[in-house]
Amino acid sequence: MSKPNFDDIFMELAVNLAKRSHCIKKHVGAVLTKETRIISIGYNGPPSGTHNCDEEFAEKGCARDSKGSCSLALHAEQNAILYAVKNNTGVEGSTLYVTLAPCLACARIIFSLGIVKVIYMYSYAEYKGLPSDEGLDFLTKFGVEVAKYGNKIQFEDNLI
Q1: Which end of the chain has fewer CB atoms surrounding its CB within 10 Å, N or C?
Q2: Catalytic site residue 77?
Q3: How many other C-beta atoms can be found within 10 angstroms of the C-beta atom of residue 22?
Q4: Could you tell me the strand order of the sheet in which 117-122 lies?
Q5: Residue ranges of the domains in the chain?
Q6: Distance CA 15, CA 87 (A)
Q7: Each residue's pLDDT tens digit, 7-58
């Protein structure tokens, strides 16, 4: 029996975490690692203690901000990073696996906290209809290694 490599393990976990999302538009999962150890996980959704969009606003989702994004939601990578920091876990030198490439705001956080590598599954620009992945462009410009995950993962959720 062949053993899966860690990129596959971590991205499969990110896909499974995305299934926990309560967002009605897009499910995103993230895994933050150092070497071969998981240091934090996250998925997109509103802050704990507020609401679950698919339960409280099942038909349209939560209110949108001026750019059309969820007004309360945290992105999966934000949740993973915040949870690590909240629990005094250093993220500097870590790798982030995420099912959707980081937006520009998340890229700024990733860079600022010293995360050195981002492996993503899908393009944020394609999802949002943007001309380029600004977040990936930012990370690359400032020396964060960026890689598109190249293997296929089976899942039924068409929101991932």
Answers
A1: N
A2: yes
A3: 20
A4: 37-43, 29-34, 95-100, 117-122, 145-148
A5: 13-148
A6: 23
A7: 999 999 999 999 998 877 889 999 999 999 999 999 998 887 876 766 666 6
Which candidate in 12, 55, 56, 77 is catalytic? 77
Q: Hey, which bits of the chain come out as E strands?
A: 29-34, 37-43, 95-100, 117-122, 145-148
- Joined tokens for residue 12: 């499969």
For residue 102, the model assigns a pLDDT of 96
Q: What is the pTM of this model?
A: 0.90
> What's the mean pLDDT when you consider all of the chain?
89
> How is residue 97 written in tokens?
């696996």
* Distance separating alpha carbons of residues 151 and 140, to the nearest angstrom: 22
Task: Report angle CA 158, 148, 80 to the nearest 5 degrees.
Answer: 70
* Tens of pLDDT, residues 107-119: 999 999 999 999 9
- Helix, strand, coil shares, percent, the chain, to 5: 30, 20, 50
**Other CB atoms closer than 10 Å to residue 65's CB: what's the count?**
11
